[in-house]
Every structure is written in structure tokens, then in C-alpha cells.
Amino acid sequence: MTTSMAAALERALTLGRRLALALAVALAAIVSPARAEPVYRFSPVNQFGIALTAAYWNPIIAYVSEKSGIKLVLRIGRTSAETTSYVLASEVEFCFTNHLFSPEREKLGWKVFASRNVAPISGQIVVPAESPISELAQLAGGTVAFAGPEAVVGYKFPYAQLLSKNIDVAVVFGGNHDGAFTQLFSGKVRAVGTVSALAEAYALRAGRKFRVLWTSEPVPELAFMVAPQVPEKVVTAVAEALIGMSSDPRGREVVRKASALVGLPDDAFFIAANRGEYEAYRRFYLTAPASLR
After folding, report:
1. Distance between CA 270 and CA 171 in Å, rounded?
2. By CB neighbour count within 10 A (0-12 exposed, 13-18 middle, 19+ buried), where does 280 fall?
3. What gap in Å lies between CA 157 and CA 284, rounded to an integer?
4. Sign of the CA dihedral 240, 241, 247, 252?
5. pLDDT value at position 36?
6. Which secondary structure element, helix H or strand E, spans residue 3, and what is its range?
7. 44 with 57: CB under 8 angstroms?
8. What is the DSSP letter of 138?
């Protein structure tokens, strides 16, 4: 074999090896595609209007995603009931709610891992401060607005009180507490069933004053909860980042700015929590009217 023939053969073999390598890489990409980063969906109950709810939560979950290395995205519905439907349908992995403590829903296996460091909340029935109504009995035959049928403290607590007193009212839902307050101050309803902290925050933001006709026993605020299928290492990373916001200057600033938007205290940080702290909700369901369980 001549030198030129040998060189040509070597070139052909080299080209063949390169083509074989390229083909192997291409086949590997087809058979074993790059794994996409997991995305976990977070649904907080609509305590405010959609825009304000998103404005509060988006900076918080962006911080937690960055610190934990776990990608979180916000998913909220048009109403609090719609948002809860995502949770019940297992369409999200994390939530901020108090809608899962009924006996039937506890069977779904969602776990409490954190809460917001705020004072306990109460259900209330309120009217404008200038309203002539001064007692619950005067609501009979009128219309009362609530955030939505899933609102435990803001709807089930106060409506159960009206039922226990045989005070017959027409119920309407505003989609969230701000929507219910709008109906109240436009004169469309006589009163609103709400949550003490949200009434206080709305009064601060809107420059309004309420007269409180009734207040329930205090209960813990909403809980951060996680679906049972989420890996424990993911839960731990998210919890550590969320709870750690209070000790990180940047985290503290994120919470401070978000809280100012909705009328929460500057120090409404996040703390560890567990199932046992929400026993008051379970007690309510033991005696609640059947229609509210």
C-alpha cells in the first residue's frame, strides 16, 4: 500500500469515528433528554383582590425560590373558592390556607410546616361605623356579604353564628374580602362577615371605619401547607428559606415592603408551625351546622 493510500484510509477512519461519535451523542440526547428543573406551584387563599394578592406574594416566593434552589410559581384563581379548588384537585404542591382542617379534607394528607407571625385572628360581622345597625338581630331579612363559601373564619364562623341565632339573611359572595367590603360601602349589603385582621388592614388602606357587631374566639391565622407527594428535602429547603427571611436583611426588606402593600405589620415574618396548633378549627367542625362542614 502506498503512502498516499494509507493516509487516505486513515482520514476515512477518522471521519468515520467522528460521525459515529456524533451519532451516539445525538441518540443519547433523544433517549435521555435533559431533565427540566421541577417547578412547584403555590396557591395562597385570596385574602385581597387578585392584583394585590399577587403583589404581596410574588416577591416573597421569588426570594424563597432563589434562597432554596426550589422553583416556586404563584397560582391563584379569580376567587378564594377557585384557588382552593386547585388545592383539592392536587393541581398545586404548596398552599397558604385554613381550608383543609375539616375531617374529610384532612384525609388528603396535606401537612402544616409554617405560619405567619401575626396575632390570632377572629371571625367578625361588621357594618360601617356610621350605620344605624348596632346589633345582629337588625340584620334579619337583609343581605350580608362574605368573601366566599370556602372562607372558614370569614364566612363559616360568622354565618354559623347567624344560624345559631335564627337570624335569616341573604348571603352573597364578593370573591375575596376586598370585594365584600366594596359591596358594603356601596350600600349593596347591610353587613360583611370577615376576618378581624383583614378588616383592620382594609380600614387602614381605604381610610374606612367599622362597627363590630360580633367577634368569634381567636384562632391561628392561615398555615403554609404542603402536599403529601412533595419530597421531604424540597419541603425542608422551602421551609428554611421562608422562615430564614426574618434573619436576613434582604429577606426582612422583602417582607416589610410586601406587608406595607396590604396593611400587615412590618414584622409579619414566617415561623415554624405544626398541625397541633390548628386544633381550634377541628373543634369548630365538631359542632358546625351540616351545611358548613
Report:
1. 34
2. middle
3. 8
4. negative
5. 75
6. helix 3-31
7. yes
8. G
Q: How much is the average pLDDT of 217-228?
A: 97
> Which residues make beta-bridge pairs with 43?
95
Alpha-carbon gap, residue 198 to 148, rounded angstroms: 14
Closest of 89, 88, 90, 55 to residue 74, by C-alpha: 55
| For range 166-180, the mean pLDDT | 97
Is the overall model pTM greater than 0.70, yes or no?
yes
Nearest to 177, CA basis, from 143, 160, 152, 214: 152
Convert the pLDDT of each residue in 46-55 to its tens digit: 999 999 999 9
Domains of the chain (ranges; CATH) run 39-117+220-292 (3.40.190.10), 123-215 (3.40.190.10)
Name the residue among 109, 128, 102 with its Cα closest to residue 183: 128
- Exposed, middle or buried by CB within 10 Å (0-12, 13-18, 19+), for 72? buried
Confidence of residue 28 (pLDDT cuts 50, 70, 90): very low
Strands annotated E in the chain: 39-44, 71-74, 94-97, 111-116, 123-128, 143-146, 170-173, 191-195, 210-215, 223-226, 270-272
Rounded CA gap, 140 and 138, in Å?
5
Half-sphere exposure of 26 toward its Cβ, with a 13 Å CA cutoff?
6
Mean pLDDT of the chain: 91
